[in-house]
Amino acid sequence: MYQYKWFRVCLGILVVLAIAFMARQVEYIFQPLFVLVGTLAAPIIISGILSYLFRPFVTLLSKYIPRSLSILLLYGVLVGIIVLIVNLVGPIIASQFNQLINQIPRYFEQVQSFIMNNQNHPAIQPIMQGNNISMDSIGSQLQNSASTITDSLVSTIVSIGSAIVSFFVILFVIPFVLFYILREGHKLPGFMLKFVDRDHRPEVHKILQDMDRALANYIQGQITVSFIVGILSMILFWIIGLDYVLILGIICMLTNLVPFVGPFIGTIPAVVVGLFQSPVTALLVIIGVVVIQQFESNLISPQVMGRVLKVHPVTVIFVLLFASSMFGLLGLILAIPAYALIKVVVTNLYRIWQINRRGNKHRREEMI
Fold this sequence. Notes:
The protein is an all-alpha fold and about 375 residues long. It has a domain at about 30-115 and about 155-185. It has twelve helices and no strands. The radius of gyration is 27 Å and the shape is globular.
């Protein structure tokens, strides 16, 4: 029976499952390995993403100066840009953030006042009576919510002190890891091919090239598009007269990194702030963001990213739902590039299988 292919495949699956089960029983043995991987994962992933972003500049500079010197020159330019941004924009962002925190209780008071002024409205009164809701209970709940949210924000800011320390440790490690990735990363495919049979090296090399191209296009394109969307959002909010322009624009920029659902999530804070200014402001925010997203979807993304990933929107939704439920925010950010890599590997393996199948069929026909 062992000569049947399906039997060998089933037996291999059973062996893998048995190994996984046994490893689960002695999980404590692998705990140091899990800690090591968890510690190294963040700086390696971040450095890998940044390497795709900076690699074109390093490649261009290395044509004229040594590669190591071009990386150091790039570091110097980046440090100068960061210092300039911090000095120019940092105090404004800090001021707007403090103002936003201080305004949260007033926002709840405005909600309470709106409900009290409209408590006799025909659309609201039946709901309140049917659920035994009183204005005093609403007022007390809103006041408690305001104080709770304010206190939780303060406690959260205090509690993330250890996270900030870890962040700065990672931030200290990343430049060193990134330096060696930028300097030696182009040698990695050749190193990996040494472990592959010589006959299969061309196909494996093509798979590695396709994976590298897919990641480069996605990372470079997504960061560029998010930056453009953030700048356009800031300009829109400034023209409308919205408060906290920089903070809301940065939120739009960061959330746009999450495909498909990110722009909608980033719009919510701006709409909420606009509502507290006036309903017209909130409506203008919605209209402006829709225009920006249409501009981004139909013009910016196709030009910057191309359509190299060729992922259907429905597929994106399902992938994001699965990744978010399994890995949270990190899953949302890494889901699409991971899916793109898997798609590249599966597509190339299927192509190789088809070639081998046609070759075997052709040989059988010749024998006949």
